[in-house]
Each structure stands twice: as structure tokens, then as C-alpha cells.
Amino acid sequence: MSATTPPDAVRDGDLIAAIDLGSNSFHIVVAQRVLGQLRVVDRLRETVRMAEGLNALGGLDPAVRDRALACLDRFGQRVAHIPRRQVRAVATNTVRQLRNPDVFLRPAEAALGHPIDVISGREEARLIYLGVAHEQPPEPSQKRLVIDIGGGSTECIIGRGFQPLERESLQLGCIASTRRFFPNGKLGRKRWQAALTEVELQFQQFAATYRNLGWDEAIGTSGTHKALANICAAMKAGTGGISREALHKVRDRLLMAGRIEDIDLPGLSDDRRPVIAGGVLVLEAAFAVLGLEYLQVSKAALREGVLYDLLGRDGADDPREASVAALMQRYGVDVAQAQRVERTALMLFDQVAADWGLGREDRAMLSRAARLHELGLAIAHSGYHIHGAYVLQHSDIAGFSQQGQRFLATLVRCHRRSVPKSAFEQLPERLQPSARRCAALLRLAVVLHRARRDETLTGIRLSASGNTLRLHLERRWLQARPLLRADLEGELEDMLDLGVALVLDLA
């Protein structure tokens, strides 16, 4: 095991699981690590159609919510005996669109027995590409276009090897587009053409960039593409893929039905019939705008990408670390100061982690926040902690869930000055206690390094009991640093807004 591999990393024989809360279907994939590779041992899929329950105000129909929770309860039984670190659940477009996602996520996490990460569209795109690349390894120099049509969104990615180069996510999916363009179930050429023109405009936003970059092959993934490949094969219009000509034949036959409930396509399952029109519409627009002639179909999708990403987080391939390094470079972070604060923050963390119930992921997030706490200085010195927090919350940062970015942003927002009463409200309740405590540790580390010079912090010890932090310092050492003493005395009051009582113990 390498020095960068944690002692509780996934080993040969261990099981890992990925759970995908899609807008159409929920999926679970369980795999076993064998000789460094993943071997799928179980798959479950249930049609939940979350997107059907999403209303214009961002609410979720109670019947659809109950259907989703019942599915997650069953999935939870399957992963109940797999260690928490070896399971990752992600939620996509429909949960992203909810006005208050936590209203759904709290009971959903209770039913599943695991946290659920809400991921952005571009992070979803990255994971989809990762899954396809691992399942169908490309040539190192080969570029691929990958298109994933889900229930609520469509992701388009160009990548080379295992790295995505361009990622886009559109608010177009088989369910969402069917509901939007054919709300009464009627199909007709005039209606279809008007809808196609509107969908094509969405692809036009990035089409020039993609076509200029180019690709060697195009791959479709997820349910719509698999269903269309089966239909094309049944119509003897192709085997294993989708051509432009075959797609038009499917569209023409679909429109002949006149109504969605009357669609009669060979190879089409009853389960897929209610949403196939929206999927065909989106794919026809993609073919037209991107100039596609043929699309291979991959068995891999988001869930496989989540599995491989989960493995990467155990070692040097954690995408979050690469993202932090890129942010530091982009915003000109003072690396030496960031490292000083990080070392001290982690030293303090290690002294109180057990008493405060903080874990490995909390330590990693504190480390990242320490490296990024001055990111906002590139914008302005005044309120730089606010600027940095805004950037971290609202950027597309590879590897992070929306909750993860908010956690990071909250630590950066609260590392200096007063702490707003609403600072932690954006976080799920389960993350708020650890975020408050990590913020307290980051504040102390920043104060101890205000001088911005290398200094051995001798005699400093931290202990925790309940919500009380006791900072043990040598009296003579602190007396020689009047500015530090004034800063620490100021923290006695400011820390209270974190729910932490700081006590200075001078010996």
C-alpha cells in the first residue's frame, strides 16, 4: 500500500456500491474489487419517475415522493452491511430542481441509511464520462463525444482518454421534454417540428465549441439510448447503435401513432413507452446540431462512474485534490501561507477529533478549506472571506457534490470576522455540527499564523469537552506576542457564534 493510500482504503475482496437517484429510474450497482479491478456482483433498477412529480414551484408530488422513499428503503437493505465509506449515493436533476431539497433528502437518507450527494449537471457529466471510459477504455489520443439523455437533463461531454475536456448539462430529458412538449399526449409533425426547433436552440449554445474540438467517435448512454438501440435492432435498422437514418425511421413511426399511449415500436418496453417521445426528440436535435451520423451505445452510465470515482478517492486520484490545486493556481493563493495554516489546522484537528466525533472526511475538508481560505484575496481584500465563499459555492468544481461545495464555502466564510447567524443554514442538518467545529479549528489556525512567517508553535495544545475548546499556551510565549493575544481574546466572543466556547489556559 502506497504512502498516499489511507489505512481503511478499499482492498481486494471488498464490496463497494453506487446508487443513482435519477429523474426516471433509481439504480444500484454493487461491485467487488478483485486484483485492483471492479467486478459487478449485483444490479437493481426501479422506475420511479421522480421528474413526473416535480411541479413548477419546485415541489414534489407526495405520491412520487413516497414511491422514491419506498425504493430507497429496499436499496438500503441491499447495502446495509457494506461499510459507510464504501457506499456513495448521488441525486441528479430532479433533486437539483427542488425548491427545498432537504425536505426530500432527510427522509430519503433515513430510508437508504446513507448520505445522498446532490451533484451539479457538470459533475454528473464528469462521472458519466468516467464510467464510459472505464467500461470501454479508449485509445490515449482518441477523443470521444458522450451523450447521456436522462429523465430530467441531458449531459454532453467531449473527453480524451479518461479526462473530460468539455462538459455541458441541458435541462432536457426524456420525461421533462415529453411533459413540456406533449403535455396532452398528442403527437403530430407540426408540433414535433416546433419542439425540435426549440430543443436545437439549446444545443446551439455549445455546438460550435464542440465541433471545433472534434471527436473520433460518439457514444450514447443511459435508458433512452438503450431503448432506441433495441428498437433499431427490432426494426432491422441497425445492430448495437443508432444511425441518423434509423433514428428518423423511429421518429416517423412514432409520429404515426398520433398519441403517446398508442405508440407501437418493436422492442419498446411498456415501461419506456410513456417517455420515449421526449428522448427521441432530444436525440434528433443532438444529431442535427452536432452533425452526427452514428452513435454507439454504451452499457455504462453515471453509476459506473460513481464506482470508479469512489475508488479514486482512496488514493492519489481523488479529483477533489486536483480541483483544489487548480483553484489555488487560478486565484494566485499564497502557497506558503496556505500550507502553514493547513499544518496547524490539522494538528489541532488531530488533538480533538476523537472527543469531538470528527472523522476522516471532516479532516479532508478542513485541509482543503485551509488551502483555499485566502482565495478571495484575488478579488478584493475587503471581505475576502465572503468573496472566497461565493466562488466556492457557485463554481463548477470537479469531484465535489453541492453539499460538499457548501461545506467548503461555509468554512471559508466563517474563518474570520463575525459569523452570520444564517451561515450554516445552507448545509444539511447532519453536516452542521462538524462544520461548526471545523470552522472553529480553522479560525484558530488562521489567527496563529497572522504574522505570515514560519514559526514553531511550541507548547500549544488543544482539548475539547462538549462544545468547549480549551487552548493551552505557555504564558511567557503568549506575552511576547501581544497582537496574537489580542486576536485570541477577540475569538473568545466570536467563537460563541459557532456554538463553541473557547477558553485560554495559560501555564
TrEMBL record:
Keyword Cell membrane found: yes
CC per GO annotation: plasma membrane
BP-aspect Gene Ontology terms: polyphosphate catabolic process
Residue intervals of the Ppx/GppA phosphatase N-terminal domain: 29-312
Residue ranges of domain Ppx/GppA phosphatase C-terminal in the record: 320-491
InterPro entries hit by this protein: ATPase_NBD, Exopolyphosphatase, GppA/Ppx_hydrolase, Ppx_GppA_C, Ppx_GppA_N, PyroPPase_GppA_Ppx
EC number: 3.6.1.11
Pfam family of the protein (one): Ppx-GppA
Catalytic activity, as annotated: [phosphate](n) + H2O = [phosphate](n-1) + phosphate + H(+)
Name of the protein in its database record: Exopolyphosphatase
Topological category with respect to the lipid bilayer: Peripheral membrane protein
Source species: Thermomonas hydrothermalis
Chief place where the protein resides: membrane
Subunit structure of this chain's protein: Homodimer.
The protein's required cofactors: Mg(2+)
